[in-house]
Amino acid sequence: MARSAGAADLRVGLVDGPVMVSHPGLSRARIEWFCPRDVAELDADDVAALHATSTAGVLVAERGSGALGICPGVTLVTRSIFRSPTARSAGSATWVELADALVELADAGARIVNMSLSLESGMSKGHHTVKDALDYVAAHGVIVVAAAGNDGAIDGTVVTRHRSVLPVVTYNLQGWPGRMTNIGRSIGQRGIGVVADGLMSLGPGGRARPYGGTSAAAAVVTGAAALIWSELPKTSPEELISAMKGNPSRRTSVVPPLMNAWQAFESLLAPRN
After folding, report:
1. Fewer CB within 10 A of the terminal residue: the chain, N end or C end?
2. Where are the alpha helices (DSSP H) in the chain?
3. Is the entire prediction scored with pTM above 0.90?
4. How far, rounded to the nearest angstrom, does the alpha carbon of residue 154 sit from its chain's CA centroid?
5. What is the pLDDT of residues 75-87, one digit of tens each?
6. Domains, the chain, ranges and CATH?
7. DSSP code string of 173-199
8. CA distance readout (Å), 207 to 18, 42, 59
């Protein structure tokens, strides 16, 4: 973060709820959206809007606003998947809605997509639709950073198993995986972890609020990847994913290691030097 704020021509997609784009902490952010339902009013208090605005704060809030603002120089493209009042209030979306959002963000030029959301229990057809969408974004050179979830489960999904996805778990300040973070074989082998305890981000009415769990951790990973890609734009998606993961081929644990963003950057920088 001391080295870069991110490149304006790097587009980061946000699959989430509607963002309070008029929040003072986002006054200097470059944010684009597809339709009015992708943005929320400043005094919104529903789950979807609060979650999306906090995620956006970790990524592109002005530094010094109370939120991390890891990569405020990039262009954030937000796409709410809660397109009805009921879905927005519940904060739960369908697999088909997720697939549509992923494809739209890839078509809009996003290079990294951040996703952390609750999905309805779906049939295998919905899972196949998401896999097809992930195949599509991978073919377009898009990396998907996905929160592993906060259900305390040992499991994996079609998302965490996909080659274009970086699953993210949360760690506590004592260096242990968060009590409720999801873990599993695909998460342990393909993912990374981040300490998210005590994190603050943007909240309702222009204020700040605590923000944690795997959603906050995933946003930190997305921000770190955006800064690395901004500094080394010729890096391929496969190279960036590999560097962020470290050495996944040697892993046998269901819990991934902590992210070391600087080490990832240096490993990519060394061959160029």
Report:
1. C
2. 47-60, 85-90, 95-107, 124-139, 185-190, 213-231, 237-245, 261-272
3. yes
4. 21
5. 999 999 987 787 7
6. 11-272 (3.40.50.200)
7. TTSSB-TT--B-HHHHHH-EEEE-TT-
8. 17, 10, 16
